[in-house]
Structures are given as structure tokens and as C-alpha cells.
Amino acid sequence: MKATHNPPTTALVNTPADLLRMAALYLRRHGWTQGDYHTIVFDALTPRACVSGAIAMAAYGTATDFPFGVDRPERPDFRTALGVLRDFLDLGCTSRLFGWNDKPGRTADEVINALNAAADRWDSLHTVGGEN
Predict the structure, then answer these.
(1) Cα end-to-end span (Å), the chain
(2) Does the pLDDT of residue 9 top 60, yes or no?
(3) Weakest mean pLDDT among 11-20, 50-59, 63-72, 91-100
(4) Contact, 62 vs 51, CB < 8 A?
(5) CA torsion angle for 79, 104, 30, 61 (degrees, to 10)?
(6) pTM, whole model, 2 decimals?
(7) Phi and psi at residue 39, in whole multiples of 5°?
(8) What angle do CA 101, 38, 62 make, to 5 degrees?
(9) Binning pLDDT at 50, 70 and 90, where does residue 65 land?
(10) Please, which of 41, 78, 84, 102 could form a disulfide with 59 given CB 3.0 to 4.6 Å?
(11) 3-state secondary structure of 84
């Protein structure tokens, strides 16, 4: 950057759809798990994640032991993205995402597809004239 260059003064704002798509991509690249937010293997920086853990990785940029209790500015974004997925799946409350993710027979592809479909639905409801 040149000394005369002014850096942007606004932070990048991610929509819930952005976070859901990032979570889907995270699962595709690093793997999906059931029964825990993250499956740490050899202290990996990018552990396998459940659906909530993947959304947390998208929002926070790191694995967390309890994403709902993280005291960071991104927490409302994390919770909103979870809510968008919960509403898309018609689960009623966010805690039911755990059961949905951990259902026997559930596949990574189903989780990834649900994340992308929820993101597409959010965009279709919130995009006006190409802007969010």
C-alpha cells in the first residue's frame, strides 16, 4: 500500500447467506461430523465440524468450544445465520439443529445442500435490485 493510499474505513459485512455458504464450503473442504461442534485431529487448524461448528468457523474464523457463548462482535451474525438455517429447516428452535445434524443416516451432502439452499432462500427474500 502506498503512503497516500487510504484503506477502506468500513468493515466487510457478511450476510447470513454469506455465512451459510462459507459454512457449506468449509464442510466440503474440511469434513463434517456429528456429536460435537468440532472433531479435533492432531490440533488441526481446520477440524471437521457439525453444522453449528461450520457456521461458527465462518463467523469467527476459528474453532470454539461453545460457539453460542463466544464473547465477540461476530456472535450476533453467528446466531442470525443459525436462525436462518433453523427457519429454512422449519425446526422451531435453534437447539433442534443439533438433533437434525446428528440424526442417524444424515449425510454431509444433506447438510451442505441445506446450508446452500437456506442461503439461496435468504437471498431471494432479501435481495432488491442486486443489493442486499
Answers:
(1) 29
(2) no
(3) 11-20
(4) no
(5) 10
(6) 0.85
(7) -105, 100
(8) 120
(9) confident
(10) 78
(11) helix
